[in-house]
Every structure is written in C-alpha cells, then in structure tokens.
C-alpha cells in the first residue's frame, strides 16, 4: 500500500491510538512560568516586541520566517534553540545544514533581539525564550491571536542534524504519519490541525509541492482542484525554487483562510490537504475552523503554548547562551 494512499477508514484508528499515547508523552518544563523574568529582566517582553514590530514593519515576511524557526526548533529535541547554532561551534553539526532547514531565515532578527537583551539584562534571557516570544509577536503582528508565553527555557549546548533530517514533519507526509509525529511530542490531532494553520501565512517552494501538482499522470491529485493544480504547474515552470503563498487571498494576514482552501481542495502541500477529505474528526475540525476564525485562533494559541513546552531530552547539557549562534565557553 502506498504511504500516500492510506485508506480513510484507517484514520480514526490512528487517531484513537495516538491521542491516548500523546497524553503521556511529554509533561513539559515543570519550571516554566509567565512571570519568570519579572524580577531579573522586566523589560524582556517589551524589547522582543519592539524589535519584532520594527522588523515586520520593514518586511512582513519576517513574521512567518520567525514562526517557522520556532516550529523547526521545537520538533528537534524540544524547544532549546538548537536550530540557531552554527557549524562554527566545536563538536556541533548545525541543524541549519539539514535539508528541511535549508530555507530557514530570520536568524538575524533573533540575534538583534539577543543583542538588546544582553545590553539590558546580561546572561539572563535564553535564546529559546526569545524564539518563543518572537513567535507569539510574529502572529499578533499579522493580525492573529496573542497568548501568555510560559518562560524559563534553557539553550542546549549541542545540535542534532540527523534528528532535523528525520524528525521534522515533511511536506509530503500523509495524515497517519503526521498524527504519529505530532503525538511523539505530546500533541494530539486537534493540536496538529490548529498548528498547521500557521500555513495561513508564508510561502512554499515548488520543490515541496510539485509532487502534488504533477501527480495523477501530470494532472494533479484527485484531492486537488484541477484549476489550482494547473496554476501551480505554471509557477513550477520557473524552477524548484519558485515560491508561492500558501494562501493567495490574504498571504500575510493570520486568519482562517488556510482552512477555507483545504475545504476547496486548494491546499498547497500534500501535508496540508492531508488534513481534509477522509471524514471524521479532522474533517469536522477543518470545516469548523474554516467557518469560525475565533475558534481557530483560540485553538492555535493553546496549541502554541503546548508545543512551546516540549522539553529537551533528560540530561541534555543546557545554559543561557550569550550569543544565540554559539555555545558559551
């Protein structure tokens, strides 16, 4: 059986098994607290907000870029800022060199925030917490929800390029694989459906959606609007790096248009459209989010807090880095 053609009847079984497993998978950082820096660096959140507001005003694309950094960090050994480390660090094979991370950007924004914080509160605010705060502000600056960020993460003293190659959800994943990968980090199917809504902003390259638009003998998959498939094939004529927005209607507004596209069979990636079309709980969630933007915003904010609590593995050496791209010496 082709992994991209899992029968719909199989999805409820996967849902029931992985939701049960996810409830015990991760307990989060027990020490995280919204007030973690209230005494040691009371200006931390305002500094992050100010830099993000300035950078997004100059280039809105920075917001989805920073949000993507946070996702790619948390799905590799927890939210520990390992994705920010350069190869220049001894004994570190940078996660930046992993294929799924080859188009990541926004590192300079995190470095700028860190520089301001080191000036105001030296050796206090972790790069992992900066990523969590900057992601919240990125969403809010594009009109999305805001939430209270739990703080107190530490930065890892190493990176894991192999895990970055293998653990990050792929744009080519089917729904059962997605559910399983999210469950490994304590995130259930509802979390997965809500977090996938981050694709209501940002872009993807032809490299990651051409298998979908050229499938079914070059006509696009059966779960794809034929006119949309043809439109995207024309884009791909410019090459694998040709990028298009996930949501063409409001590409830089954090709204529920992503789900409307899924219902219309206009999801860009295989892993996007995988959320809709099999019936059952996931279809109901997608349909609800497509009609009720407030319900999506609420679930997204809740899921971001939950994802942001994924801890590094027990025993991993951690610190508060003085520079986000390298460990302390």
UniProtKB/TrEMBL annotation:
Bias class Basic and acidic residues marks the residues at: 152-164
The record lists Ca(2+) 2 as bound by 200, 247, 250, 255
Q: Which cofactor does it need?
A: Ca(2+); heme b
InterPro entries xref list: Haem_peroxidase, Haem_peroxidase_sf, Peroxidase_pln, Peroxidases_AS, Peroxidases_heam-ligand_BS, Secretory_peroxidase
Query: How is the co-factor bound, per the entry?
Result: Binds 2 calcium ions per subunit.
Region described as Disordered: 152-171
Keywords of the record, alphabetical order, are: Calcium, Disulfide bond, Glycoprotein, Heme, Hydrogen peroxide, Iron, Metal-binding, Oxidoreductase, Peroxidase, Pyrrolidone carboxylic acid, Secreted, Signal
Quick one: signal sequence residues?
1-25
Q: Where does substrate bind?
A: 169
Main location per UniProt? secreted
Q: Which residues catalyse the reaction?
A: 72
Job description of the protein: Removal of H(2)O(2), oxidation of toxic reductants, biosynthesis and degradation of lignin, suberization, auxin catabolism, response to environmental stresses such as wounding, pathogen attack and oxidative stress. These functions might be dependent on each isozyme/isoform in each plant tissue.
Q: Member of which family?
A: Belongs to the peroxidase family. Ascorbate peroxidase subfamily. Belongs to the peroxidase family. Classical plant (class III) peroxidase subfamily.
Its protein name is Peroxidase
Native organism: Panicum hallii var. hallii
């Amino acid at each position: 059986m082709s992994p991209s053609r899992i029968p719909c009847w199989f999805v409820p079984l996967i849902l029931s098994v992985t939701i049960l497993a996810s409830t015990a998978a991760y307990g989060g950082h027990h020490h995280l607290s919204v007030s973690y820096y209230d005494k040691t660096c009371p200006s931390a959140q305002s500094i992050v907000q100010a830099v993000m507001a300035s950078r997004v005003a100059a280039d809105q694309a920075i917001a989805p870029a920073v949000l993507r950094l946070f996702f790619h960090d948390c799905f590799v050994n927890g939210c520990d800022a390992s994705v920010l480390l350069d190869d220049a660090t001894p004994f570190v094979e940078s996660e930046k060199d992993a294929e799924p991370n080859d188009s990541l950007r926004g590192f300079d924004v995190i470095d700028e925030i860190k520089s301001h914080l080191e000036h105001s509160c030296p050796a206090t605010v972790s790069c992992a917490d900066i990523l969590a705060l900057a992601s919240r502000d990125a969403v809010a600056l594009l009109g999305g929800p805001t939430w209270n960020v739990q703080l107190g993460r530490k930065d890892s003293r190493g990176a894991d390029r192999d895990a970055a190659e293998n653990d990050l959800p792929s744009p080519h994943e089917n729904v059962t694989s997605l559910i399983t990968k999210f469950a490994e980090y304590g995130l259930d199917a509802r979390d997965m459906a809500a977090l996938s809504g981050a694709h209501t902003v940002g872009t993807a390259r032809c490299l990651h959606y051409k298998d979908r638009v050229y499938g079914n003998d070059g006509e696009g998959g059966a779960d794809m609007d034929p006119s949309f498939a043809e439109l995207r094939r024309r884009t791909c004529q410019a090459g694998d790096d040709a990028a298009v927005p996930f949501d063409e209607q409001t590409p830089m507004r954090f709204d529920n248009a992503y789900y409307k596209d899924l219902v219309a069979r206009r999801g860009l990636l295989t892993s996007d459209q995988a959320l809709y079309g099999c019936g059952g709980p996931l279809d109901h969630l997608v349909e609800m989010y497509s009609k009720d933007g407030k319900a999506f915003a609420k679930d997204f904010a809740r899921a971001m807090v939950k994802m942001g609590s994924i801890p590094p593995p027990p025993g991993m050496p951690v610190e508060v880095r003085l520079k986000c791209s390298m460990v302390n010496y």
